[in-house]
Amino acid sequence: MTDPTPSTNDILSKIRAAKSAASTEAAPVASVPGSAPALGAKPAAAEAPAATSAPKSTADILAAARAKASAAPAAAPPVATPPAGTAGIMAAVKKQGAVAAPAATPGKPADIMAAIRAKGGVAAAAATAAPAAVAPVVADKATKPLAAVAGLSPAEMIRAARTAGTGEAVTPKVVLPSKPLPGKTAVGKAVADVPRRSVLSDLLAVVFAPVVVAWASFLGALGAAGLGLARFMMPNVLVEPPTKFKIGPTTDYAPGTVSTKWQAQFNIWVVNSEVDGVRAIYALSTVCTHLGCTPNWLEGEQKFKCPCHGSGFYKSGINFEGPAPRPLERVGLRLSEDGMLEVDKSVKFQRELGQWTNSSSFVGVG
Amino acid sequence: MLNAHPDLTSSVLIGLGWYYLLLFLMNFVWTIRSYREDGEYANGLPRATGWATYSSILMMMSAYHFTYPPEGFLISLPEAFKAPFDRYFSNPVLYFFLTIVGLWALIALREWWTKPKVSFVLLNASLLFMGLSLTDFDFRQIVGKPDNVPIVAMLFILAFCTWISFRRAVDNDRRIAEGRPLFEQEDNEKVLVWPDLVYTELICMVVLTAVLIFWGIALKAPLEEPGSSVKTPNPSKAPWYFLGLQEMLVYFDPWLAGVVLPSIILGGLMAVPYIDFNKLGNGYYTFKQRSFAITTFLFGFLPLWVALIVLGTFLRGPNWNFFGIYEYWDVHKVEAANNINLSEFFWNGLGKGLPKGSGLNTILLREAPGILLILGYFMVLPPILGISVLRTYFVRMGVLRFLVFSNLILWMAILPIKMLLRWAFSLKYIVGIPEWFFNI
Q1: How far apart are CA A210 and CA A214, in angstroms?
Q2: How many angstroms separate the CA atoms of B26 and B19, rounded?
Q3: What is the β-pairing status of strands A244-249 and A257-259?
Q4: Are strands A257-259 and A330-335 parallel, antiparallel or unpaired?
Q5: B276 Rama class: left (phi>0) / alpha (psi -120 to 50) / beta
Q6: Is the pLDDT of residue A276 over 90?
Q7: pTM higher than 0.80, yes or no?
């Protein structure tokens, strides 16, 4: 609270505190006839001074302007305007660059209203010129109708205030349902006529054409690079071992043995053993099913043992110790026409999926 | 006869000579300090006499190491000590149990072990134990490996950091109990960034650079043969700081130990400020005011991370088997590691055998005990904890925060639980569905 430059959070918390206080004590006031539109807006009017009682930073002023923008219609009926709210309005009016409010006594709403009306005449003259900054615009929308309709009844002023968002020439008869939106600037439409619009569009074209060209060429280059990358993924020459290769006749693999002679070249072990009562030759992939290390065949223990996390596999490839969740995978094996065993590494056979019974996963012997 | 694995060589003895010389210097300085501060016994003998004796023994040991040949050298660990030590201590269950006991002692005996004299005795004991163990060939192979030297250093640095925080905490707790101002308030002598801090940083930078250069020259980077996709080194170890993670991978499926658990560790640490409702202990050391937070952290850090790094570094050998610190790393060491899933325990226990088939319902039926157990663990346990043991936490935290908190605690607990289940019952997976790559 005593921070000279309050942060957004401070302001918000102040506003919330003021709002809850205002809504509790404003309840009876809101029931006054003729102040119906003030129902939603009055808490906002009450909160304005909380945030702007000592406007020190741009954030404060903006908060005041926003609060007042919604509070202004409510401020019009004198009955519904708490003194504190008018002080905020006055502060915001000053910031907006209009004539300083002559009424220095916030205690009398009637005086203030008179001051606003009197000032309105001056502001109305200034209102035809486009305000430069965005922040005053918000407040400007709220006071502009007041300026144009000086001397009208409060209800008419409220209606006029609502129409201010459209930015059209304000008359008391024009009543549009749209509420003034803080983000919507009325300036462009209000001041633009035909020749200026074409100048503006020319200007826009000049400003944006290079941006469009730059983005288009950037995206084009990106697309070309993407195509180049896609091409890179399909090289002309693949220096990989073939997925289909011959590993000699079945007699090279004695019953009950594990051959590691193709481990370095093709990442397979060739095993001649009995699995599920069938004597067969099959080829196991050397990739551990836990995290992909290469296990070692330990002849003494008759098992494959992975050095990374200690997974162990039987000669059949079935996991029995350590963390490996499933058996080693078989690769395709068949007896080719010339009597040689042919491995096809492009296909895998997983036991847990019941694929080891597939006749392409082994070659029966004996 | 030529011994391929000599316990003692002349270069080892020279190195140990320097080691004991440094130990002697350290204790010599301590003796001077003791002489000045500790006073005398009743008979007029200075209390520093004991330290002086110990220092002189160290100096004689150093001289003995420098001058005597390896043959017939007397100071080394006898086999009668090493063999039983390996047999009984090369056991993950006992190791984990000891780390938990160590954590308990760290906390319960904090008033005692943070005393300067006690901690200096403990430091001497650990250094002497290491010096004597270095006479063993296999211990030297592990500890002296350039990869592992920083881990040994890390242990001592970690011990120092733990010591200093506990010492400050014990001091502050005593101050709070006596109503005196905190150490941080009393000793708030502020210094300037320039020159005090910047000079300190400069000196640290120079010293650290010098140490790194010396280290880089003295210990060669342990380069190995060119990598090959078909030849995995045995044992194959992760970088030292990931060895805890690698040890976790022994007990869990890769996606769980490699992805889910690390993510929960990171997310959980980020969530700590939002879970913690204890506003005490902010900006000063204390244990009593934050006993739950500190104990939980230390449990996750010391036994579940640092101790697993030590285990992975020093105690895991070829084929990821468990080896004692004086044990030869035998590639053919046979270790029974047959693991069984919970579903097999359950269905075989019922005498029915596993439900066969790969249909959705069969798999779910097969793994139903494990699935129910896991669901109960994560969904039933938090409310039970909330109304019983952790009731005060539940009241202070509210539903959402308490659920996050209790689930993080349960996730942390699942690691030692799974490890104990593996060691005690050879349990492989609580839920094991290899068909879907889903194993817990």
Answers
A1: 6
A2: 11
A3: unpaired
A4: unpaired
A5: beta
A6: no
A7: no
* Coil vs helix vs strand at A20: helix
Lowest average pLDDT, out of A217-226, B214-223, B353-362, goes to B353-362
Q: Are B323 and B317 in contact (CB under 8 A)?
A: yes
SS3 (DSSP) at A335: strand
- Rounded CA gap, A167 and A121, in Å? 17
3-state secondary structure of B368: helix
State whether residue B278 sits within 8 Å of chain A by CB. Answer: no
Q: In a 3-state reduction of DSSP, which class is residue B242?
A: helix
Please tell me the distance in Å from A343's CA to the nearest CA on chain B: 18
Residue B311: CB atoms within 10 Å:
19
Pairwise CA distance, residues B128 & B142, whole Å: 17
A269-274 long-range Cβ contacts below 8 angstroms, 24+ apart: A269/A297, A269/A304, A270/A341, A271/A315, A271/A316, A271/A317, A272/A365, A273/A315, A273/A316
- Cα separation, A102 vs A249, in Å, equals 111
Whether residues A191 and A83 fall in one domain: yes
Token pair recorded at residue A269 = 């072990």
Q: Residues B429, B253: contact at Cβ < 8 Å? A: yes
Q: Measured between CB atoms, which of B235, B252, B332 is closest to A301? A: B332
Residue B318 confidence (pLDDT): 87
Both tokens assigned to B76: 């080394």
CA B141 – CA B159 distance, rounded (Å): 23
B332 part of a folded domain = no
Smallest CA–CA distance, residue A87 to chain B, in Å, is 41
CB contact under 8 A, B236 and A307: yes
What's the token pair of residue B22? 């440094």
Nearest to A44 by CA among A167, A136, A165, A180: A180
Residue A235 domain-assigned (yes or no):
no
**What value does the mean pLDDT of chain A take?**
68
Q: Is there a single domain that holds both residue A99 and residue A160? A: yes
**Distance separating alpha carbons of residues A294 and B231, to the nearest angstrom:** 6
What is the pLDDT averaged over residues B9-23? 92
d(CA B229, CA B226): 10
Residue in this structure with the two tokens 């790559």, named with its chain if needed: B437
For residue A304, give the H/E element and its range: strand A303-305
> Which among B76, B102, B126 is the end of a domain?
B76
B306 and B174 together in one domain = yes
User: Which one has a higher pLDDT value, B171 or B230?
Assistant: B171
Nearest CB to A294 within list B230, B332, B338: B230
Q: Give the domain range for residue A151.
A: 8-195
What is the C-alpha to C-alpha distance for residues B388 and A277, in angstroms, rounded to an integer?
56
Taking the C-alpha atoms of residue A161 and residue A179, their distance in angstroms, rounded to an integer, is: 9
Which of B287, B340, B308 has the alpha carbon at shortest distance from B107?
B287
Contact: B320, A296; criterion CB under 8 Å: no
Give the confidence band of B353 by pLDDT, cuts at 50, 70, 90: confident
Q: How confident is the model over B247-269, as a mean pLDDT?
A: 89
Q: Measure in Å the smallest separation between the Cα of B249 and chain A Cα atoms.
A: 7
Chain A nearest-CA residue for B258:
A291
Can you tell me the distance from the alpha carbon of B265 to that of B30, in angstroms, rounded to the nearest whole number?
42
Instruction: Let me know whether B103 and B242 are in one domain.
Output: yes
Q: Are A262 and A241 in contact (CB under 8 A)?
A: no
Domain count, chain A: 2
Higher pLDDT, A339 or B103: B103
CB pair distance less than 8 Å for B437 and A325? yes
In a domain, A214, yes or no: no
Which pLDDT belongs to residue B117? 92
pLDDT value at position B204? 97
**B50 lies in which domain range?**
1-76
Structural domain ending residue among the three candidates A161, A195, A229: A195
pLDDT for res B406: 92
- Residue A246 DSSP class: E
CA pair distance A221, A194, nearest whole angstrom = 40
